[in-house]
Amino acid sequence: MSTATDTKRKAPAGERVADWADGRLGIYSLAKANMRKIFPDHWSFMLGEVALYTFIIIILTGVYLTLFFHPSMNEVEYAGSYVPMQGVLMSEAYASTLDISFDVRGGLLIRQIHHWAALIFLAAMFVHMMRVFFTGAFRKPREINWLFGFLLFVLGMFTGFTGYSLPDDLLSGTGVRFTQGAILSVPVVGTYISMFLFGGEFPGTDMIARFYSIHILLLPGIMLGLVVAHLILVFYHKHTQFGGAGKTNKNVVGMPLLPVYMAKAGGFFFLVFGIIAAIAAIASINPIWALGPYRPDMVSTGAQPDWYMGFAEGLIRFMPGWEIVLWDSYTLNLGVFIPLVIFPLFLTAIAVYPFIESWITKDKREHHILDRPRNAPTRTAFGAAWIAAYFIMLIGGGNDLWATHFSLSINSITWFVRIFFIAGPILVFIATKRICLGLQRRDRDKVLHGRETGIIKRLPHGEFIEVHEPLSPEELHRLTAHEQYTAGEIGPLVDENGVKRKVSMLEKFRVKLSKGYYAEGNQIPKATAEEYEEITSGHGHH
Amino acid sequence: MKKLSARRRHPLAAVVVLLFALAATGGLYAVFAPADQAQADETAQSLAIDEGKKLYSVGCSSCHGANGQGGSDGPSLAGVGSAAVDFQVGTGRMPAATSQGAQVPKKKKIYSQAEIDQLAAYIASLGVGPTVPKPEQYSIKDADIGHGGELFRNNCAQCHNFTGEGGALTEGKYAPSLEGVDPKYIYEAMQTGPQNMPSFPDSTMPEEAKKDIIAYLDAVNGEDTPNPGGLKLGGLGPVSEGLFAWIFGLGALVATAVWVAARTAKAKKS
Lengths: 542, 270
What we know:
Helix content of chain A: 55-70%
Radius of gyration of chain A: 29 Å
Oligomer: heterodimer
Helix content of chain B: 40-55%
Distance between the termini of chain B: 140 Å
Strand content of chain A: 5-15%
Strand content of chain B: under 5%
Strand order of the largest sheet of chain A: 1-5
CATH class of the largest domain in chain A: Mainly Alpha
Largest interface: A-B, 76 and 63 residues
Order of helices and strands of chain B: HHHHHHHHEEHHH
Distance between the termini of chain A: 70 Å
CATH topology of the largest domain in chain A: Cytochrome Bc1 Complex, Chain C
């Protein structure tokens, strides 16, 4: 349709801008390569998106809050509009948070959006991480990205903690004191670290200013970098997908980034923002005006950290108060130090899991098809046990509220938590594994014998049978597409020439674990094509 | 005057003078002597004590002993004062009969205020103790709310939470919520230290300070306290906030994610 006159026509403005930018940034080739990038569709793949969007919301609202917050511990007498605090001496940090809540336009709403978004950010990261864990999405090539995600979760915990401490209110001050106590419990260097961190004796006058730069600059800066790296790796690796007809380890079945996912993801961002804003408008969070300014000589009952630090609170609450006094002069406060050691160990247990599993399987291939949790019974059981321990610790962290709201004795709850911190994960591990194996057996039955229709048929000679309906080919594929590992073997310890082969203890341990994962009884062999042929070729049911 | 002086020797004159004198003395006595009134009051008081003792014998003596001397099921009531009776019976904690738990809970009160006053009078007669405060003692007029807040955080929040929502103590005992509690009972509780609570007599916490605390509670946890942030979520802090974030926050977002994922662009058929 082009004619000579067309070439003289000026290109539309958008095209000219794009052309201008392309000449300088080379965006065309970048866009061409990525515009049609395919993403698979599943609601659970959007959990990470929730985390990303809440992170953006936190940054946006956080910037607004920095405009009015004074990170200073100078003592002032409050004279703002909240009557119950008038005339009370407090730090400038607390006074400015009161001002944000009562005297800055939109301040309280923004504060509440910021805080609610933070709680939901951590929760979204948690469930996103569990989705990745239970579907085995952490396997090669995504181990590094798993670690990035884990780091984001841990950094998110500390960013949240420092932010929660900034208003210098009685609740958060108690939390900081708790942390300082944990630092002091470290043998030998504890007092030095505490003095270094707080610039002298607790609370000193530096704490808030230091937390401020950590909260708004250091940690979010690192997190932003990690988020970008996390997303780049998602792009680079391509997204994983659940198995099914037409889905292989070498393709991605789904919709293109442009226009479908751009629209969906963009729209989803506004949905997330809207829902969080609505929650922040409906429900109060951290009403610091009711808590009062921090003074080290005061404390309130019901002093808990935000939920993501609740498991640490639980560790402290249910740990017996053991202490050892050495040479009548040096106190080892084990009641606090042991929880401080368990805290990172517990988190690390889930972080290093991908490496342990790949060491056990010796599988060096790439995996882009997700596992159904039941098809990896031991992994699923481990994850469930980890969550159980986490939940038990959370119960310990809120033991006083369990006591008052269910009319229980706080001492009994503490003992329950002590016992089930050990026994709970073991029971959950066993139960989950059995459930997974049961589901595998069911899948196998469905493949070989079809779906139970519930229709009972009476045969001419009087026998009753239930009619089984064969599955569709797609369904058959879905239930049998997963591959199963075989358990490792140590092999003969003596070779054919009678020479003893050396097997390291580590290798023996690996084989033992491998058997625990994949030996008979620890996974149900999936139905093979031959078995299916044999059963469906005629000779009667069962 | 003549008439009067002419009859001063009349045989009835002495009687008349006597009558006048009696009337004057009686009138003056009636006007100036409060003794009569006191007599009447004392009668009412002893009447109240008598009535109180009767009520006591029926409702309280099985645990606290026939004369308030205490027993294996209840402490001695000598010297607890009328304030303690007014608090314990007025909030329904006493009689405790049905409660075998770790702590006697607040219940529906079963005595009328008049009966409680009679019981209080009887118990007060057993020994000197804190008396029921007068309304002006716990009135929050002109009280310093800010100072009350500091006192509350210093002395009360350890057990009753920042704004008096209550909290757990050991072995199933608890510090109850102070929401909606009559200022009189808060005052009496501070005076008498019921159950696990320490007492704060006027020597350690003067009347003015008690007023400030009551005024603070009224300001942050009263019937018409505004909640500027929206739903209070029980005023229990991060535990209820965390539950809310998980259930309603993340719950709503996951539901939305499911909804968005279910509405996908379908490849055109044919």
